[in-house]
Every structure is written in structure tokens, then in C-alpha cells.
Amino acid sequence: MSNEQPSRPVDSRSITGYDHETDVLVIGYGCAGAAAALEARSQGAEVIILERAGGAGGSSALSGGEIYLGGGTPIQQACGFTDSAGEMEAYLLAALGPHADAGKVRAYCRGSVDHYEWLTRQGVPFKPSFWESPSWVPPTDDGLMWLGENAEPFAGLAKPAPRGHRVTAEGFGGKVLMDRLVGAVNAAGAGVHTDTYATRLILEDSKVAGVTARRFGKTLTYRARRGVILTTGGFADNPGMVAQHAPLLTGWGVTSDGGDDGHGIEMAQAAGAGIQNMAAAQVGISLVPGLAVRGMLVNAAGQRFINEDQYPGLLGQAALFRQDLRVWIILDETAFEEVPEDERWGVLPHLVAETPEELEQEIGMPEGALSVAVAEYNRHAARGEDPYFHKNKRWLRPLEAPFAAIDVSRGMSSPELGASRGGAKVFTLGGLRTDTNGTVLDVSGFPVPGLYAAGRATSGLHGQGYISGTSLGDGTFFGRRAGAAAAAAG
Fold it and tell me: I need a surface site. Which of 114, 144, 296, 332 has the fewest CB within 10 A?
């Protein structure tokens, strides 16, 4: 990272000449930046993308490749599911809340089928096949998966339909997504300047008109005739910003490419941009969803605290923010063996005992706490019921000896991202305030002239919740909108 930190904007009157000029300048080359560049080029604008790394990809390329899409996509139809934009909207407002951005959620849901078609036109592949078990990332290349839509309390709020559209790939699909978007950007003729770190915004009077940047120790100036689009990612890799805005994330592992340093957010703030939802985060905890759903997720007092068949990211938020990640999966031998070995990601029980009483003693729980919880769970499970959290009866079965406990805080290794330090990996959801066209808003809610943003640099669809695919989906969808708005600006 450059020693030059984002700071106050540069007055254009101090610049005697620009090294580069373009219509639209995109800062950051992940999925949001690629989408913004493609849409701006489709409107006839000249585009340059600045990327701090040696090539495109960013955190998008490391992702599982799920994109949250619905409303009746061809993949949903091919797999036998009906859906509507209204049902998709109802689910997202509940699952991404509280304080999800209703206007953005509505625009996203109503434009979802069109966005699917746009992605496929860029060459992004989706296989018309369905994976039905809970999973972070399926071990197959199936193109559709549940992301908590069929779990309570959400199944009672919106008609369930699976909307996790997974980019066809061997392993994680983010790399394939970025490969196809990069190919489309190259074909569209956008300029790409790599190893170039944007440092400060340039203002002409009150309008953002470009940036200064560092490349191999040299300062460069870029002028944007129509607009600057920030797609620089979140701030989970910036310990100072995390401590200031989201202290509960301090010390945990980060899901990123290492470049989510918040510099785009800070540059925009220095020009008067507003921020919001900065404490919100996705929390990926070290549990195998297929194991958790077949057992009980309990806290340090031996108590269940959530429906285990919800989207695992919501389990992670509840575990970290409400239980300080002092949580265990309690299951039996049958539950463990039901999950195929390639879906366990190498996870083994940490403790085994013949009775819940022995297990609670080994864990250090209050005497009788876990044994009562197991007895109560079993009593209702025998009738296919879960009156406490309403887990789907498909996963309900009395647990039998021998019993096992998996300590989530010990972490695990996913096949592509490696070990989770301390049992959790996080990324931030808050950022710059933007409208539904990607225009950056100031602290009073008025547009910052010439400045646009998309992706994790913004506070996008999300409130306090998160669902897989809403990062790649949000970034590409609103990246397109930001690109179109910037291209249309005078």
C-alpha cells in the first residue's frame, strides 16, 4: 500500500496539465468496476479503469461465485421453480434487515431477470441444475441453491424460491465471473491502468473531476470529463477504520484479497460524502452448514439461540454479535455420517461423549444446561416439531449416543480460502451513501457532483443482515447503474 493516504481533495487550479483524460474514470477493477466500465462504454463514453493491483479481480475473484438473482430467471424455471420480484423483495427486506435500503432492494428485485440476461450476455455461465442441501459453496457445479429462503422465519414472510445463482466453475466461481467480465471489458475497448493507486480526488469548483494516483513511485493526474466511479471495496483490511466504525470485527480474519483498506471511502469523505451502516458486516463462521442443520447450535450456556437451517451467514452474525463466537455444534454419529466427506471440509468433532451430561462437563457448561437442552430438543424432534425456532422438520430427529461437539471458535479450512483465524472471517457492508443510480450523496443527502460509487465501497442493499450473492449481485447491478449515470452526465 502506498505511504500516501487519502486526504483532502486537490484543487484543479493547482494542476498545470493532466497525464490522462477520459469521460468516465473507474477506480477499482473487481466486479463492480467491470460492470460500471461496461455500461459506460455501452453508452459511448470513453473509460479508463485504475487498479492498484497488477491485474483485475479483487475480492470478487476470490468469492464463491454466488449471485443473488430471482423473479423468474431461466435457471429457476429450468429447475422447476416459480418466483416473482415481489416475493424476492419481501425476502430480501427481511433477511437483509433491519434497515435494508428499501429503494435499492426494490430496484434490484425488479431488475433481476434483466440483470441475469446481462450477465449471460457477458459470457457468465450458469448451469440449469439444483443443489438442495445447506452449504457455503456446493461441491458440484450446480447452478441454483437455497440461501435461506425456505427457512423460518423467512418462509412465513415470502413464498420460498431458491435464488442463489452460482457461476459454473470447478470450485469457487468468482474467478470465472471475473474472467468473463474482464474479457467483455477488453472487447468493449476500455483502458486499464494497473499498479495504479488512486490517492486524492480532484475538484473543479465543487465537482469531482478526476484523481491523483501513484504508479511505481510517480504521481499521475487523471481528468474525468463526466464522472469518477469508486469501486474500491470495503474497509475490513483497515484496522483503524474497523476500530472506529465496527469494533466488534476487530481481530477476526478478513474475507478479501487484502486490499479492502477503505481508501475510496476516505477519499470521498474528504470531499463531503456521507457514510452509513458502517458497523454492519458479513460473518462467515467456521461451521459446515450440513452438520449444523442436523444438530443443535448452542451457546456457552448450552442453549440454542437460532434456527440452524437459516442461511449460514445469519448464523455467523448471531454467533459473533450475540454470543461472542462461544458456540458449539452438538450432534450425534448419525448426523455426522449423513454429511458426505467432501462436504465436511475436513471438520472432525472436538469432543465426544456417551451422554449430554458428560459433554457439557467437558465443554465447561453449567451443570444440567446441555442435558436439558438436548432432552427438550429430542422431545419435540420425535414429533417432527421445533416450537422454539421452527427448524424444517426435514432436519429434525432425536439425537442419540454417542454425542459430539464441534467448537466453532477453533476454525476450519475451506478448500480455497484456507483457515479461518479464530473461527470467523468477516467483511464490511457499510460505506458511502448512494442513491439507486450510484450517485454519491453528501452528509445532507444531496449529490456530490461528478462522484459515483458501487460495490462494497458503498452501503448498498444491506441493513444489518447479509445473504450470499448480494455482494456480487449488488456490485454488478449498481455498478452498471453508476456507469450509465456517469456516462450520461455533462
Answer: 114
Q: Tens of pLDDT along 453-487?
A: 999 999 999 999 999 999 999 999 999 999 999 99
Phi, psi of 102 (to 5 degrees): -60, -40
Among 56-60, 132-136, 161-165, 356-360, the least confident range: 132-136
Average pLDDT over residues 87-93: 98
What angle is formed at CA 39 by the lines to CA 121 and CA 206, rounded to 5 degrees? Answer: 165
Examine the pLDDT at 417 and tell me if it is beyond 70: no
Is the model's pLDDT at 113 over the cut of 50? yes
Least confident range from 96-105, 312-321, 415-424: namely 415-424
